[in-house]
Structures are given as C-alpha cells and as structure tokens.
Design the sequence.
C-alpha cells in the first residue's frame, strides 16, 4: 500500500525556490536592478499589501471627511445646519408677520379705521380648585372597605403607653450598666426610659444581639446609639461620652458599645439614659432588666 504524503506548504521546495528578478534596458540589455525573490515572499508581500489597503480604507471612511462621498453617509454638521436654518426660518416668519401687521395698521391709519392688534394669548396663574373633581378608583374603594372591615371591631385601640400583648419577660437581657437608678420610667412626663448613675468611664453593653441602626451626636441628648434586636425590640443608649460602634455594625449581647458620659444639653451629670422599645412602643426597662 502506498503511504499518503503530507504536504508541508511552509517548507515546499517550490515556495522556497529562489528566483532572480532582473530589470534591464530594452535597448542595450544593460542590467539595472536585480534581486532574489521566492513564491512565498511574493504571497506574503501581496497579502500584507491587501491588509494595509483595507486598514487604510477603513481609517479614511471612519475618521476623515472622505466618507461624505460614499453613498449612505451624510455630513456630520448637517443636523446642526438644519437646526440653525429652522431658527432663521422662525425668525423670518415672525418678522414677516410683524411687518404685515405694521403695513395693515398704516392702511387703517390712512383710512381712519381702528388699529388692528394681534391677539396675545393670556394665561391665568390662579388655579380654579372648585372645578377639580377627585374620583376614587374601584381598586381603591375595595381596599378601603377591606381595611375598615378588619379594624372596625378591634378590641385593642392603638395607644403608645399600653404594654405589648406579647410577653417578652422570658427573654434574658444583659444589663447595659450596673448602677443606681435616679429617675424612673414615666411616659406621662415624656420620660420613656430610666436614668442610671454609674462610675466614670464605665463601659455600656448591648442588652441583646442586634444591629446598630443609629450612632451619632445630637444637640439635646449628646452621643446616642440605637440597636435593633429580634422580636421587634429596640434599645436606646443616650448621653454617652464616646461611641464604640458605627451604624450598621453587628453586636453581640454583653458587647461594649459605648462609654458612659454627660453629653448633650439635657444631661444632669454623668449617667446613662436607657430606653427599651417593643413593637414601636416604650416599655419600662425595670420590668425586664435588673440594673
């Protein structure tokens, strides 16, 4: 059996065979220029020339003004010129209308007629609220009826001073600081927490695991830090001298979050004003935490 021979075009003797190209004078047969070439060299040269011509053509079409002469391409400044011409046409139209009105008035003056004035549109800036009619959509009316039917027979009206119906006494709270309570919880006087006096530079701890939702300084209560816990619980620590956690930080129960102080205009000395909120309502911290 005959073995099939593979052709290696890169090492083909025909492609690599050298030829001598000579330029001679046709009359005297004097040799002017001569150089050696190969078929592979000619193919590479022709291919490189074609690629160069394609790249040059693309460049001329994309980045020069020669593309305006190619069908399908327009002048880049044409839209701007059209816009300017439209403005000029509008100005000429307005000027022509004014001149026509001027000539018409001259004719009326000569004929002792009343002057003609072009009507000017008037716009009233005073809204007429008595003409506005509001209509409820069918979906809005159905939603209102559904909400009213669910809340009209409720036995527990909303009151911010009522205790939550869910028992949170089974939750173990860490004490924020150990000290003496100098002012108790009194929502009637808008005192929604307890004031605790402790040693200077005493560390304040988080009562539960949670996320810091506020950590900043206020004019009345100084440095404040608020922590969102599970079971819709929020703890608030006011009048601190320094805050150790930033907003968005995750804290563990018993972790130090601030240092006791007397910052803010409403302070009466070094102490911690501590508040405990459940379901958006304040509760007495002494009923759940032992200070």
Sequence:
């Amino acid at each position: 059996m005959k073995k099939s021979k593979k052709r290696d075009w890169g090492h083909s003797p025909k492609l690599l065979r050298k030829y001598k190209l000579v330029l001679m004078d046709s009359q005297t047969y004097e040799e002017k220029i001569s150089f050696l070439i190969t078929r592979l060299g000619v193919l590479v040269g022709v291919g490189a020339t074609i690629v160069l011509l394609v790249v040059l053509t693309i460049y001329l079409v994309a980045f020069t003004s020669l593309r305006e002469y190619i069908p399908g391409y327009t002048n880049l400044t044409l839209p701007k010129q059209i816009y300017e011409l439209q403005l000029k046409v509008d100005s000429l139209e307005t000027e022509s209308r004014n001149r026509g009105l001027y000539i018409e008035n001259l004719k009326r003056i000569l004929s002792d007629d009343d002057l003609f004035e072009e009507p000017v549109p008037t716009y009233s800036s005073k809204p007429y609220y008595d003409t506005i009619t509001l209509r409820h959509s069918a979906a809005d009316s159905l939603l209102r009826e559904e909400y009213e039917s669910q809340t009209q027979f409720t036995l527990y009206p909303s009151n911010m001073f009522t205790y939550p119906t869910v028992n949170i006494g089974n939750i173990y709270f860490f004490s924020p600081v150990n000290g003496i309570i100098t002012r108790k919880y009194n929502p009637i006087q808008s005192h929604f927490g307890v004031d605790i006096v402790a040693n200077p530079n005493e560390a304040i701890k988080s009562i539960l695991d949670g996320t810091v939702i506020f950590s900043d300084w206020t004019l009345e209560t100084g440095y404040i830090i608020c922590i969102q816990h599970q079971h819709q619980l929020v703890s608030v620590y006011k009048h601190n001298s320094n805050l150790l956690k930033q907003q968005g930080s995750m804290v563990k129960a018993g972790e130090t979050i601030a240092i006791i102080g007397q910052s803010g205009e409403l302070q009466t000395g070094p102490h911690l004003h501590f508040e405990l909120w459940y379901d958006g309502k304040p509760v007495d911290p002494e009923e759940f935490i032992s200070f």
Q: What stands out?
A: Confidence is low (pLDDT under 50) at residues 155-165. The longest strand covers residues 233-243. Residues 166 and 240 are 31 Å apart (CA to CA).
